User: What shape does this take?
Amino acid sequence: MKRAPLLLVLAGTVAGFVGVLGLHTRPAGLATPGPRAGAGKAGRTPAATPDAAPTGPAGPPAAGGGTVRSALGTQVQFGYGVLEVKVTVLGNRITDVSVPALQVIDPTSQQISEQVFPMLRSEVLAAQSGTIDGISGATYTSTSYAQSLQSALDKLHIK
Amino acid sequence: MILSPSVPHSVGVSALPFSSAQPLPAARDRKRRPRRRGSAGPRPVVAGAALLAAGVGLGATTALTVTAETASQLSAAGGLATFAGNVTGMVGTYLALMMVLLVSRIPAIEQVLGQDGLLRWHRRLAPWPISLLVAHAVLITAGYAQAARTGPWHEAGTLVRSYPDMLTATVGLALMGLAGTVSVRAIRRRVRREVWWTIHLWMYLALAISFAHVIVLGPSFVGHRLTRVVWSAVWAATAGLVLTYRIGLPVLRSFRHRLRVAEVRPEGPGVVSVICQGRRLDRLPVSGGQFLFWRFLTRGLWWQAHPYTLSALPTAQHLRLTVKGVGDHSGALASLRPGTRVAIEGPYGVFTRHAQRRPRVLLIAAGIGVTSVRALLEDLPPGARPVVVLRATRREELVLGAEITELAARQHGKVYELIGGREHASIDAHWLRRTVRDLRHRDVYVCGPEGFVTEVVEVARRLGVPGETIHHEAYAL
Assistant: This one.
């Protein structure tokens, strides 16, 4: 009878652990734009060591005719700021992605964003879609970027 | 060695109840009195459910933290240290909450697990949350420093200065460290009790001010509404339980019962009975053998609550505790002035008839342990036929002797007094086997100083009494 309390706690621990693991089989991926990232004060993940990211020129022009259209994605509030992605397409090709409006709370976050946005832009242009891998160490930025981008693409009825 | 069914002592008469010369309420009358509330007994289901929930919470918290990180984050600079820091932080905080709940004196839990058991677990668990949280601080600093490519001290400064709620969290950790350090046995002995108690209470403050930084910065919470809500709910529930059972219920009880000291009566050398008067005291769910935490609202005593056993079941208007003056607090009780207000918490204690498994009982007490036995005797179910063994070095030390004799006689029981030095009059296996022939039909209740209790429990075990029918309560300073 003396050991029963301990066994109960142990059983509960195992159950809780397994239960939460089971519920978490699908991690919040970057490919699926999840629900709006929660509001709140600054939260931050440590900055990634940025590799040299070329701020390349816009992608190759579309073969054949097509109109140039652009759209502004929804404002997405993430851990430490708000961003909006603007995408420009020519026909069906994404030619440019930019972040015209970025509001962050602290200067460190500003720095991170400035490093990360060019990398994300390259990824989008290479992948030609809103489904990107994101930058390790800047998960929240990447997720929100992808979210806003996708909403812009939806507005243009592309992919 | 003196062995005899005891003879009633003669003592002066007093107008208040519980006087040794006044007869106890006749058995007839007791049956006609309205049934006393409480004594419903412990409900193991509640305590079991609580333990299970605690375990589930621990497992869930750990899994939550483990799954909050992605592989890419782990491989980033400082990722591993940050991950370890997150795990230690969450688990450490959860265990700290459990520590608080262990001593929140929730009656439903306490009646099954026992106050001394809960305290023992509180002390045993203590090193874990503190070490985990210190490790958490170190690991997070190291991880963030690696990611930002700076030295750890510089990063520590940045963390504390420019991240929200980190300054308070750091102060909180420092307070926790202080409370933990002061409680280390070697240091606690050298510190005055008021100082130790105050520092220990700062633990509540430390937890309260550390809450924010977890919700705001923790990876499990940023962007995850559900986990934020659940975590906040758990904290709110803990705070609610602490406020209710450590403060709310005692205050409510004090107002309801309006307890005041009525009389302080000497019972023997260094022993006094404090009789308190109030109203509706029979509504307290007290079982014989239980104790209350007593807070006497007078200078020097108001800030501490000490546990003392009730030496009789409450009547509608009176409570009685009988105390031996061995420490600062118990010694001060002899000088209590009538009219002093009293705040109580409880009742607590598992040394009651609800623990009884067998048809009859053997009650063994030494020194001031007779108080529990005296209260138990009044509460025994019919047919218990108690055999009572009282042990003391000198006859005057056996307080409440007349009441015990009368109560035992009423139940067709027997009282043995073993008086003398330890060489002549101690309870050994030989004596017990000879005197109590039907030991295997009796639950054994032992109460008294720690050394005595350990010895007698050992003797009972050697005589083949199974563990679950031995109940003991040791008085320690």
Notes: Residues 42 and 148 of chain A are 19 Å apart (CA to CA).
